[in-house]
Structure formats: C-alpha cells, structure tokens
Amino acid sequence: MRPPEFPPLPALTRAEGEFIDCYLEVLDQVGRINPARGSDTYSALRAAQALASRAAALRDALASMHERGETQIHAGTLARALRVLDGERRAARVTVPPVGTS
After folding, report:
1. pLDDT by residue (tens digit) across 44-90?
2. pLDDT of residue 6
3. What pLDDT was estimated at residue 102?
4. Contacts of 4 (CB under 8 A, 6+ apart)
5. Which of 13, 57, 71, 72 is in the most buried spot, having the most CB atoms within 10 Å?
6. Burial class for 14, CB neighbours closer than 10 Å (0-12, 13-18, 19+)
7. What is the pLDDT of residues 23-40, one digit of tens each?
8. What is the pTM of this model?
C-alpha cells in the first residue's frame, strides 16, 4: 500500500518558509490555549508560555523578509502552502466550535 501523495509546496523564499512555519506554530499554541477546546489549565498555561517565543520568532521572520526587500506578501502562494501544511485544520482549533460539538 502506497502512502498518500500530498501536493507539493509552492516555491517559497527561505524567509517565506520561516514566516509560514512560525505562523503555524503560533496557531498551534493559540489553539492549545483556546478555552472552548481545552481540557486543563496546565496545558493552556504551557501553551501560553510557549506563545511568547513563537510570536517573537514570527515577528523576526517578518522583519527578515522586510529587511531583505520582500515587501509583498503573496497571499495566494502562502495560502497554498498553508493548505499543504494542514493550516486549515490547525486554524480551526482557534475558533469556537459549533454548538453541540464540545
């Protein structure tokens, strides 16, 4: 049985790749903090502590892009990368779940 084939990532600069990685890490931490989806305070506390460093890394990635002259965010390309990297599922953890699913 062959493993499923995933679509390839679009071509990204190193800084764009870092931006996407850091953005997803921030989403993951905020999803773990989400009181509508959490189960215990200790996990939320740990995620909140990690969020600060992840947010700083995201800021640094964006600053690096800007300093290198990458002044445009190519939303379509970056959205494709987010989809390939399971960004939709990860972002959904940040929202309030529909009534009756929690």
Report:
1. 999 999 999 999 999 999 999 999 999 999 999 999 999 999 999 99
2. 75
3. 58
4. none
5. 57
6. exposed
7. 999 999 999 999 998 889
8. 0.87
Q: Tokens 């947010």 map to which residue?
A: 55
Q: Residue 7: CB partners within 8 Å, gap ≥ 6?
A: 80, 84
Q: Position of tokens 């940040």? A: 94
Q: Which of 99, 81, 83 is nearest to 91 (CA)?
A: 83
Residue 25 tokens read as: 């890490």
Output the DSSP codes for 23-57: HHHHHHHHHHH-TTT---HHHHHHHHHHHHHHHHH
Instruction: Tell me the one-letter amino acid at 68.
Output: R
- Tokens for 54? 């992840």
One-letter identity of residue 24 = L
